Amino acid sequence: MSEIRQLAPYDVDAVRRDFPILSRHVNGKPLVYLDNAASAQKPYAVIEAERRLYAEEYANIHRGLYWLSERATARYEAARETVRRFLNARKPAEIVFTRNATEAINLVAASYGRHFLRPGDEIILTELEHHSNIVPWQMLREEKGVVLRVAPVGDDGEFLLGRFAELLNDRTKLVAVSAMSNVLGTVLPVREITRLAHTAGARVLIDGAQSVTHLPVDVCDIDCDFFVFSGHKIYGPTGIGVLYGKEALLDAMPPYQGGGDMILSVSFEETEYAPLPAKFEAGTPAIAQAVGLAAAIDYVSGLGMERIAAHEADLLSYATQRVQAVPGLRLIGTAPGKASVLSFGMECAHPHDIAQVLDGAGVCVRAGHHCAQPLMERLGVPATARASFGLYNTRAEVDTLARALEQVEEMFRP
Ligand code: C6P
User: Fold this and answer.
1) Where are the domains of the chain?
2) Is 220 a catalytic residue?
3) What is the fold, at CATH topology level, of the domain defined by 12-30+304-412?
4) Ligand 1 pocket: which residues have CB below 6 Å?
5) How far apart are CA 396 and CA 362, in angstroms?
6) Distance of CA 387 to the CA centre of its chain
7) What is the distance in A from the centroid of ligand 1 to the CA of 295?
8) What is the position in ligand 1's atom list of the atom closest to the CA of 232?
9) What distance in angstroms lies between residue 82's CA and the mean position of ligand 1's atoms?
10) Of 207, 212, 371, 386, which is best to mutate to test ligand 1, by the most ligand atoms within 8 angstroms of its C-beta?
11) pLDDT tens digits along 128-170
């Protein structure tokens, strides 16, 4: 199916039929789901992969000496290989399953950060980071006395590479940046950021929570040291995320959590840890969710990341043009090359009011600070309304959004 689909023109109606929830109504209106940056809906392929595992092949993994456990283990490890291929990592050992992107960043902060960073070492973040890529480093600052430096963004939300480069110095030990802003859609030049950081002798962590859904990724090409993402944003299950790390680095890092499955042997005197990646996967992992994530990756790969990106780019430019025509609406984040996210404010209404009116029209958007309060502060807004597009959204849905925004304007106009 996948090759045929990749060769055919992008058929969004066929894609929509793969997602059962998209045919439902909310508040008496057809569902228009535009909150994909928060979490994406799931295709039958993902739902069915989890169902099949539970119905036919489920047992705990890595420890059973019976067929069913071996089968479930094979499925889980095959999922790891699918993720490896998707990211173009060198080895499955470089792929650690976590709960989500947040846990993956916490793992790096707790293991790499505690073990390798010293008081006075500097970590560079950017103004557009999600709280998940700020708070773990602040916790490390409390504990280790590291220094956080923040690369600025411009008024349009563009990343200022030159200003970032000025922050690099011989105390910089880590650069932790998002590949794409969840609020503004700004896409960061992660390859160039990594090159500059490496020249300064720093390690690089890329938060791919948003970018992984919209842009093809190749960790070897970027040459980053760590890359993280969550399954639920890429049409996969909740409860599963990924940490990619270069093998030598992960090898040198101490375990994050202790328990079963991450050991070779335990006595009360000492414990020998398992090799990668098991060393970082203490306890029974999210087995079915890993299998569901692999199905999601197969699904998006079947459609083709480039084709998805092209479809979404068309939607974003159409939506930008449509909503800009709504009186009193101001776009927030207009960096060149931005992807799939449209944040805005309206003179007449608070973002929460906007979201509520849109909900009445069946349109789901997020409103608030989007877990990026420092960015809100930088932009001088308390909140934004945010429409974020996925591979199943259509121009007709954008029209519904624009009409509902016109309704907001009519309702709240003084
Ligand atoms: N952003 C949004 O609505 P988790 O929660 O671990 O799956 O993802 C955290 C995360 C990390 N980095 C970025 C850039 C993100 O956008 C997110 C999640 C959602 O924008 C939920 S706050």
Assistant:
1) 12-30+304-412, 47-302
2) no
3) Aspartate Aminotransferase, domain 1 (3.90.1150)
4) 37-38, 100-102, 130, 132-133, 178, 182, 207, 209-210, 230, 366, 370-371
5) 13
6) 16
7) 21
8) 7
9) 22
10) 371
11) 999 999 999 999 999 999 999 999 999 999 999 999 999 999 9
Q: What is the DSSP string of 191-243?
A: HHHHHHHHHTT-EEEEE-TTHHHHS---HHHHT-SEEEEESGGGTS-TT-EEE
Who's near 186: CB < 8 A, 6+ residues apart?
Answer: 128, 153, 157, 158, 159, 180, 333, 335, 338
Is 33 in a helix, a strand, or coil? strand
Q: Is pLDDT at 2 greater than 60 in this prediction?
A: no
Which amino acid makes up residue 115? H
Q: Average pLDDT in the 97-107 region?
A: 98
Instruction: Write the DSSP string, 147-163.
Output: EEEEE-B-TTS-B-HHH
Residue with tokens 């849905």: 397
Nearest CA owner, ligand 1 atom 19: 38
| Residue nearest (by alpha carbon) to ligand 1 atom 18 | 38
List the strands of the sheet with 329-332, edge to edge: 329-332, 341-346, 384-388, 366-368
How many angstroms separate the alpha carbon of residue 240 from the centre of ligand 1? Answer: 13
C-alpha closest to that of 311 among 391, 233, 386: 391
pLDDT at 8: 78
| Preceding omega of 285 cis (within 30 degrees of 0) | no
Multiple choice CATH, 47-302, 3.40.640.10, 3.20.20.80, 3.30.750.80, 3.20.20.70:
3.40.640.10
Mutation pick for ligand 1 pocket among 36, 135, 177, 230 (CB with most ligand atoms within 8 Å): 230
Task: Report how far ligand 1's centroid is from the alpha carbon of 327 (Å).
Answer: 30
